[in-house]
Amino acid sequence: MKNFLELHYWKKEKDEIEIEHFFDVEEVLIPLDFKEKYTIYKQKNDYIHMGEVVAKDINNFPIFSSVAGTFIEIIEKNYKKDKKIKYIKIKVDIKNKKNNFKKRKNYENLTKKEFLKILKDYGIIDFNKKNTPVYKKFMKLKDDKIKHFIINGLETEPYLNGNNIVIYEKIKELKIIINFIIKLFKLENIIIIIENNKELSNFFKIHFDKSVIIKRVPKLYPLHKENLLIKYLFKKKYSRDLTKHKILMLNILCVLDIYNAVVENKPVIEKIVSVNGKGIEKPSILLVPIGMKIKDILEYCFYYNNKCKQIVINSLMDGEAIYNIELPVLRETKAIIALDEKETEKIKSYKCINCGRCVEVCPMNLVPLKFLDLSVKDVESIKKYNFDKCISCGSCQYICPTNQPLRETIYYLKKKLEEIDE
Ligand code: SF4
Ligand code: SF4
After folding, report:
1. Which of 119, 121, 260, 348 qualifies as a cystine partner to 135, CB 3.0-4.6 A?
2. Quick check: CB of 354 below 6 Å from ligand 1?
3. For residues 124 and 261, is the Cβ–Cβ distance under 8 A?
4. What is the CATH number of the domain that holds 122?
């Protein structure tokens, strides 16, 4: 398929991998809002319970403690090279590691209003869509007839295989909550998207009746991105806000968060994180508390200190390299990839040869090589080359034979434009 990359050969498959719970930690760093606009409800030496709201962000969205323990202090660390973030440091009460969330009785009788309130109060976010609070998506569709309810279980990025494992292990939970949402909103067209894998598709079909369509799509990068997937499914371009077209799309991990909130009465305090790459010995899918340090996770997966040359968060294609492994798992962290020397080998950068490969591969039909000479002040050219349409997928960088700094340039330009907007 044109404009997509076949990357599966990069992926380290591991059949017998399963989700491991890893909570063995002495302290956590609960991340506060990036924009530094939050209200903190706790102070030094306060005892905090697991799942308690410790702060709220600028949108009044709750920030929870993932552990029980004592508030030590607020510290600041560089998250990315140029972005600082504050954290609440909590010393874990090792005698109180059990979660005391009690299953919600009669969740089946919740009204739409009550359901939306739970999504808001329990901090459910769709990380595939610029960290949008999920209740907002539902709010927009509350009184409309939803035309299509799509659950996105596709993962097309190298080294990531968390979604499939979640599907196999949490099918009962997924089934309960999907059927609940279908009933509550009286939905008719339900599609679950998975990679082109017959075994996985048959597994789904055992658990859902025929009214739920299981759609297999090719594992091509970056087809998992919401709007590209919609274009592929309906052979038509839609505007970015799918709710305008009465389409509700949720990522499968987000559906699991909804299950935890609605049925288990549990806010989002843990993350399923894929840990992979040649710089570690034990590739794993871990369930860890938000705020656990990346260093603790890497040590648990036996990372080779001398062999590991770079740590990348979330994705090799459009993720972030981090240089400080004392940083914690954030709400949006889904993968930690430890690369060895071979994988990080720097290819010498030559002059752009105008080969056009970056153009061929761009899923948004842009001309990435033109971005190399753009300046934030050159508003005309930014418009002319549709820079705002770039989804930062990294495909152009991956394909470029002369290793032009495309990803770096795009990141820099986006950051500068964001600053101007603020
Ligand atoms: S792929 Fe690289 S070398 Fe080829 S046109 Fe694009 S920027 Fe230039
Ligand atoms: S990063 Fe932007 S310009 Fe490059 S391929 Fe992806 S969408 Fe196109």
Report:
1. 119
2. yes
3. yes
4. 3.40.50.11540
Half-sphere exposure (CA, 13 Å, Cβ side) for 250?
Answer: 23
Assess whether 373 and 320 both reside in one domain.
Answer: no
pLDDT at residue 71 greater than cutoff 90:
yes
Tokens, residue 146: 């939803």
The answer on 207 and 143 residing in a single domain is: yes
Output the CA 368–ligand 2 centroid distance in Å: 6
Residue 280 in any domain: the answer is yes
Domain identity same for 212 and 140: yes
Q: For residue 139, give both structure tokens.
A: 């709010």
Ligand 1 atom closest to the Cα of residue 372 is 7
Q: What pLDDT score does 335 carry?
A: 93
Q: pLDDT of 93-145, one tens digit each? A: 988 877 789 999 999 999 999 999 999 999 898 876 667 789 988 888 766 77
- Domain with 202, as residue range(s), is 107-262
385-418 as b/e, with b when 16 or more CB fall inside 10 Å? bebeebbebbbbbbbbeeebebbebbbebeeeee
Domain boundary among the residues 233, 262, 291 is at 262
Instruction: Give residue 415's pLDDT.
Output: 82
> Which atom of ligand 2 sits closest to the CA of residue 389?
7
Least distant ligand from the CA of 410: 2
Ligand 2 centroid to 397 CA: how many Å? Answer: 8
Least confident segment among 19-28, 222-231, 339-348: 339-348
Number of domains in the chain: 3
Which residues lie with the beta carbon below 6 Å from any ligand 2 atom?
A: 361-364, 366, 368, 390-396, 410
